[in-house]
Amino acid sequence: MTTTTLAVLVPLLPFLGAAAGLLLGRAAPGFVRPLAVLPTVAALVLAVLVAVRQGGGRAVDAATQLTPTGSVPIELALHLDGFAALTAVLVGVVASCVQIYSTGYLRDDPRYPSYAALVSLFTSAMLLVVYSGDLMVLLVGWEIMGICSYFLVGHYWETPEARAASLKAFLVTKLGDVPFLIGLLALAADAGTFRITGVLGSVAAGGIDHPTLVALLLLAGVAGKSAQFPLHTWLPDAMAGPTPVSALIHAATMVAAGVYFVARLLPLFAASAAAMTVLAVMAALTMVGSALAALAQDDIKRVLAYSTIGQLGYMSGALAVGDRGAAVFHLLSHGAFKALLFLAAGVVIHAAGTNSLAAMSRMSGLARRVPDAYWTMTVALLALAAIPPFAGFFSKEAVLVAAEHTALGDRNVAPAGAGWTVFAAGLLTALLTAAYAARLWLLAFRGRGTEAPDHGRQPIAMSTVLWVLAVPSLAFGLAVTFLDDWFDGNALTPTTTTAVLGTGLALVGGLVTYAAWRRATARAAHVPIGAVAAHPEADPAVSEAEAIATHVPAYGSIASAPDPGDPGRLLLGPLHRHAATGFHLDAVYTALFVRPVRAAASLVRFLDREVVDTYVRGAGATTGLLGAAVRRAQTGNVQTYLSVLLAGSVVLAVAAVLVAAGA
């Protein structure tokens, strides 16, 4: 079987599994789990075979015309290079782990068949984006992921938080997709093709007339899909969905799609210094702002959500300085440890009966209740904080090295100002990342108070997946010396300067947070008002849904808790209140966009009801009155008709005489 045939089967198998799961979910429920897991695992095996055959060498291209358009053709094309091969393996690994984990996490969920089918479709769409060599076909996968995220984030549709989060995710990402589509059409009009190889050839030949405009339009879609400032606000709220969905979205699909897209078309963006500068500023604001927000969140999943936004900022920063190898390297590394963090968080939420770090900090023995989640989450948090030799250290250092080289003029792909911006923001974010990672670990696993509820052992499917993901979270970075050939050939190994600076700042962030936690512990004598725990006998998915639904009534906010024992509150000081709400961006958008749109909608409704409908009702009423008047004349009396006829004849005769006399 050829490499091209194997690559076609990779996205096709999960799609067929999704279709079969939807068709057989109710009729044959015993087949639902095999149809969810086996096609995804098979796609992973085939993706590994494709990667082995591709071997980081010359790209494999194949295409067939999909449909004649009369102008720019649309082709069903494959483009398999080192980036695509390794990213597809990541998608397969994370998706397989999510499907296996979900068999235990949602084991008694009545909507599991549709859930599993949507996860398979989500996986298929991302694999289509990864392997596609045609921008229009890539757009199909791009949009299918948006639809799947709407349904999966809203899985707990009984709760208002899930309904609002799914709608917000859909609308905000669509807001970015509109200029994204315009940018794709403009790019194809200039290049004369939707083929990625053709577009890159046109860029190299200087055939793109307006590279800055096209790049900025495309960046709007990337900002929405990859949750970058200012279109990042949907991602923290999307935590209202099931934890396995969060792992899939954050680690290997959707948010990774935007970064991967820019990596594919990086020469186009590099053709515009303005676009690279905008990307650098966007990445810097995203990194620092999200790290500050993560330090103030009470919901354990919202901490991880803001963490994802920040790590995506690192990837965007690497792209802004012209090193897509460093960006994709961090994408791969981050995918492993972020999937582990979310899946472990699901176990912790089930064991604690709450998603509140404030409530967990009042429990003792939580680490003993869930040893698998404790140890694997510790590994993942160390990788997130970029502590050597964990995977996150090597990939984050690759980003900082790329920024340093651009800042010092060793590379001229991007402006030096972009390099300094990314480098400074990256170092500051390294400090803050270690701080919020340490805060999460201390509050979740070093609590003091009543004994954590005993839910028994977690399903083996959930525990096994955690250890599988712990391996790349620990060891993937060691492959750094072998990955150069898979990317652009740029060295990804750390330098002494960035390693000392990055690791030193991370250690400072962790130690300062530990000191603040020790000081704040004395203030945590009583449980925060309204602290609650879900029913101890509930299944994991039910516990999570209850935790989400009860957080606002318990604390008055979905994001924070009035906890005097929170070290984040001590570290941020007066900034804590603003960071907890994401620096009020939702309020700003509500004032600038939501209220004007609603006001305009109210005006349109008023005009429709009171003006347009008035004319319509008036026309109907006038017709009715005329009909009533005519009806009165129709008495059915012959004498009356003759009298009226005679009177009319007399009137006409008199009128004729008067007219003649006047003439």
UniProtKB/TrEMBL annotation:
Cited InterPro entries? NADHpl_OxRdtase_5_subgr (IPR018393), ND/Mrp_TM (IPR001750), NU5C-like (IPR003945), Proton_antipo_N (IPR001516)
Enzyme Commission number: 1.6.5.-
Question: Where does this polypeptide localize?
Answer: Endomembrane system; Membrane
Any Pfam family: Proton_antipo_M
| Transmembrane spans | 6-24, 36-56, 76-100, 112-131, 137-157, 169-189, 201-224, 245-263, 269-296, 303-321, 327-352, 373-394, 414-438, 459-483, 495-517, 641-661
Q: Where is the signal peptide?
A: none
Which residues belong to any copy of the NADH-Ubiquinone oxidoreductase (complex I) chain 5 N-terminal domain? Answer: 68-115
Q: How does it sit in the membrane?
A: Multi-pass membrane protein
Q: Cite the NADH:quinone oxidoreductase/Mrp antiporter transmembrane domain residue spans from the record.
A: 132-403
**GO MF annotations in UniProt:** oxidoreductase activity
| Superkingdom as given in the UniProt entry | Bacteria
**Main localization category:** membrane
The protein's name in its UniProt record: NADH-quinone oxidoreductase subunit L
Q: Which UniProt keywords apply?
A: Membrane, Oxidoreductase, Transmembrane, Transmembrane helix
